[in-house]
Design brief:
There is one protein chain. By secondary structure, the chain is of the alpha/beta class. The protein has one domain: Glycerol-3-phosphate (1)-acyltransferase (3-Layer(aba) Sandwich), CATH 3.40.1130. 44% of the residues lie in helices and 20% in strands. Strands 1-9-6-2-5-3-4 form a seven-stranded mixed beta sheet, with helices on both faces. A two-stranded antiparallel sheet has the order 7-8. The mean pLDDT is 92.
Length: 220
Amino acid sequence: MTVRDKIAMAVLPRVVWAHLKFTVLTSRLSVRGSDHADRLVQTGEGFIYAFWHNRQILLPVLRKEENIHCLISSSRDGEYVARLAGLFGKSAIRGSSTRGGFDAMKQLMRVLTQGGIVAITPDGPLGPVYEVQPGVVQISRALGVAVVPVAFDSSRKKVFASWDSFIMPCPFGRIGIVFGEPLRIDKSETLEAGTTRLRDALDRTTSDATRLVSGNSNPR
């Protein structure tokens, strides 16, 4: 890593952290369905937050009291994300389908069996965007843990020219956040069926978050 890279690694996560804190402070937030997650927390059972890769940035800000273990790739970009998560008091489990995936899966399952909370982007780290990879479904089916789909949208945002069109909310706008109803993947359910259910749930929460921002009908 060059000196320039080291400086960027030290500075950029803090800049994004400050931006997000200021954005939440100056925006009008509409949150729906957070009670779904609250009830799971109260039971003490482990569960999974799932959200599309391009809409991951707000969860650490919104669930600030929870020790969420975030699955983050082992890439250099992943290091930025891991450091940002750490600034919000979240833990990082490093690994992906292309590097360190088996060890990361074991760590995730250990956290869940101990009653912890994990966060996963089912279409990450390299896509295709909005296509659920099997990891979340396999974990839920194996352990019987719930999956809470989460999405946000913002009236003021920067959409990056990345593979996933990553969304960064900006200050002085309206932000809609939706936590969908928890779903569980039964052991008798096929991987394909579970994947379809999770994709539909994520698409639904995303549409509902957009409706909150646009002021249209209330989300389901």
